[in-house]
Amino acid sequence: MEKKKRLKNARYITGFDGVRTLAVIGVILYHLVPSSLQGGYLGVPIFFVVSGYLITDLLNQEWQQNNKIDVLGFYVRRVRRLYPALLAMLVTTIAYITLFQKELLTNIKEIFASNLLYVYNWFQVLHKESYFDHFGTPSPFTHLWSLSIEGQYYLFWPIIVALLVVFLKQKQRIFNLIFILAFISALLMAFLYKTGSDPSRVYYGTDTRMFSILLGSALSFIWPSSALKKEISNKGRIVLDALGVSSLAAIILVFFTMSDQSSLVYRGGMFFFSVLVMIFVATVAHPGADMNKLMTNPLFTWIGKRSYGIYLYQFPIMVFYESKIQSIGSHPWRNALIEIAMILIVSDLSYRFLERPLQRFDYKQTFKAIKAAFTGGAKNSRQKVTVITGLVVIGIAAFGMVVVPQATATGSNDLQANISKNAKTAEKKNATALKKASSSESKKTDSSKKASSAKKESKVPVEKQSPTALTKAEAQKASNVYATAIGDSVLADGTDLLQDALPHMYVDAKVGRQVYNAADDIKALDAQGKLQDNVLVGLGTNSPFTTEQFDEVMDAIGSKRQVYWINVHVPTRRWEGPVNSMLESQKKKYSNLHIIDWHAYSKNNTDWFYDDNVHPDPDGSKYYATYIARELIKNM
Hints:
- By secondary structure, this protein is mainly alpha-helical.
- It has helices at 2-6, 15-32, 43-66, 71-100, 108-116, 120-126, 145-167, 171-192, 200-204, 206-222, 234-257, 263-285, 291-294, 298-305, 307-324, 332-360, 366-375, 381-402, 410-438, 441-452, 472-478, 489-501, 518-527, 547-557, 576-586, 598-602, 618-635; strands spanning 483-487, 505-509, 534-538, 562-566, 593-596.
- The protein folds into 3 domains: 2-359, no CATH class; 362-406; 410-635, SGNH hydrolase (Rossmann fold), CATH 3.40.50.
- Helix 3 packs across helix 10 (206-222), helix 4 (71-100) runs parallel beside helix 15 (307-324) and helix 8 runs antiparallel to helix 10.
- Residues 428-471 are annotated as: Disordered.
- Its main location: membrane.
- One of its GO terms (molecular function) is acyltransferase activity, transferring groups other than amino-acyl groups.
């Protein structure tokens, strides 16, 4: 009876399942094939706008019908809808990593608790976790930041709606106020965003992301679903359909074009995208328009109803699958299809056997149901197996939360130790390289002459060359090479031997460095007089990048310098192919760009690398340093 009274004038808008489908497809493909759908992360603002609209619409209806909002009842309904699947995902994921990937158990109690309390996004901010550093061992919980923002919204919004209705009364005033608050949130995102830095703080923050939910909430006050009439004029229908189709087309276009590293995203782009979504949602909600029909079909309905589970399970499945498959980069689409199938199967099982049943389950009968499973004989054998399996999984997860590993995998420790050692030795070698380079200006210019003369000199026979050490003749040529190297952890891993082979090379290598923040670092090196005429670049390991970001790096280096860019060997990541293809294509644009094909040279030699199959181990570093030194000598 309560449900009928509370939802007396409500209608189920089937097209919203289609909108959710659009959102979840964007998010999934962004994670699986980022080079093909670089703006798919904007599926999350779509979820936010829809959620803000629907929740506020229902709260408004409740106020109109009952002259009050049952806040406690609202909380109970949200918990019953969202907690079972979230809790199941957390427990099963923790159980899995307890058994198979113990290195992911670090901070697991805090991760578990912060997700249940819906504050995980702030945990990520405080721990400086990057959403955009895709390399290393990704957390299977990274994506849950958005659920925390929604959870915080659910906690306060019913109370805020009641206060707004009581004190402002007029819906237009309420709309104006909420829209202003949304705009302030977007301004805060723009203010806190720093060009060339990791944007994770503004990406995760409730304060900087709330505008999407607020826009949906504002819409519900001037566009309540229960007040929209099916009978409208032809002109009105045409206007709504035109707005709906054009906003949908714009949303899809942005999915394909707006990179998560573009400054435009954080300086108004995401806000205006959310406004587009608000317009689109308004047209889908209106029964007199045709957009609801357009977004309603069996496939969209099936996916839309399971979109919560799909979103929940996508990241754990991707992380676990990709940790076992070493050829992700070689077959990105094949692996993507396998992962999509796994996500759909798991989310369907969650929807059928967890989300729907537990939404109606009387939790007061929990112990009675468990007892019945063990005392009902053969007829309850399936329930008994289910209960036992659940208890075992819970037990494993509980054990994992208590027994936290003292250290990460051995290979990871060895790599970190090697990078730390190299960083210390690089300081001394860099000082020597700078001293040699600055001893005379003529020496600096003479270096390019000597290096370029290498082509004219007779080459050392291939059979006398060692793949792990330069010959005496090559070492002599290498001693005349003056260069600056800038790169990420792969370069940092090979710095020591590389500087042994090229003693006049200054190296600036940082773990986690991305192409999008390299331009500022290069400009700083130039201002300090550390950027020489030959520049070696080792970037692209951590994520794909746009041509605009590549252009920024090349512009920072300048057209008068020769650039030697080492392409990437990242078979465990799907951007390996797109990054290397993009680097090759840029040679046509930049005459001073030379690609060092480390990928082709190393791809069939897994024994050269640590367990991650990306960073060369001590033996592999010999091949890395020798090959790069040889390529520099050959091309200068």
